[in-house]
Amino acid sequence: MESSSAAARERLLPSEAEAFVSELRTFQVKQIGSDKWMTQRERLERLHLQAYSNVSQNSDEFIKDFIISYNKLPLLVHELLVVEVWRDKVFPVMLQICKAPTSSFITYIVLYFESVLAGLLELGLYYREMCEVEERECVVDLLDYCHRRITAVLSEEGEEGEREEESSDEEDPENPKVDLLKRKPWIRRNEKGDTERYDDRWVPVETSERLKISKLRAYLTEPTLEQIPALADLQRYLEHLSIMEPPPGKRQLILEQVPVIREEILRTNIDQWDAIATRHVSLMLEPDVQRVQELAKGWVSTFGEQFLEPSTCAVCGGEAMKRCSRCRVEWYCSRECQVKDWKRHKPICQELNRSHSN
């Protein structure tokens, strides 16, 4: 019953998904909202839903395999950054031009599409696999995007905290200390670019002192490494650093990778934000009614019941809203049905849980 249920929810065949992935192409900021862009957006949303379904059902993740084999990861990162630039540079200008929009549906589709692209990059597309593609520069741009999003979330939380402090007489003495630690006013770079620290006076930081980073080894405990496996490489590096001789204190050439995709998007569209916004106002905020209706029908066909078929209970066959928390495969309508089915499901659940752990 599990296999038939999974097949019933599989609305995108592997052959169709492969065709969708192979035909993906890049778009520019000014092309957002066009018919061709909307067609690719709809296909990517279907790929995203099918990829999520594959992961939740522990089935063949063919969407991920096609994206990696056709080397479409840089394209997804590019499209993600294009939508982000549109949201930051074009959308605010559109709201200034059009004070009373007649429709917000198309605008919502574009804004929602950013989360779809982020979801495609999240569902099984790990950093290890991204490093296997030829154009590895996209990894730097993706990390830069994540840093901007995290910073935005933290800044919003900071503003909420400031409002709470204004409404409360109590002060949190830890906040100034945290800000001070982040700024590190006791460290600076002089005119020559050398690092200095303040110890009654500004003194240069020797190379041997920089090797004190090895003190981090005390914090890389087994629970920490289990939760963040990527720190294992740092642990090996620190172990190697602790037994090696300090390198000579001479200036060496340092090469640093920097994000280039977003900068190229900004450079290409410089001084064009007003023109793009004016065109997109008529395309999104004051659109043709018939076009909105056609897009709404496509949205319903993608996210409606035809695709998101409800799961069925393994015991009574009714609509299920809960599933086993251990294997996350079997669905149930209630706790009672899950208890009734536990004798049958227990060996299967243990085997699935063991295979997931391996």
TrEMBL record:
Which segment of the chain is annotated as a signal peptide?
A: none
A GO MF label: zinc ion binding
Q: Output compositional bias ranges, type Acidic residues.
A: 156-173
Lineage, top-rank taxon, reads Eukaryota
Q: Which GO terms describe its cellular component?
A: cytoplasm
UniProt keyword list: Metal-binding, Zinc, Zinc-finger
* Residue span of region Disordered: 156-177
Question: What are the residue boundaries of the MYND-type domain, all occurrences included?
Answer: 313-349
Write down what this protein is called: Zinc finger MYND domain-containing protein 10
Organism of origin: Geodia barretti (Barrett's horny sponge)
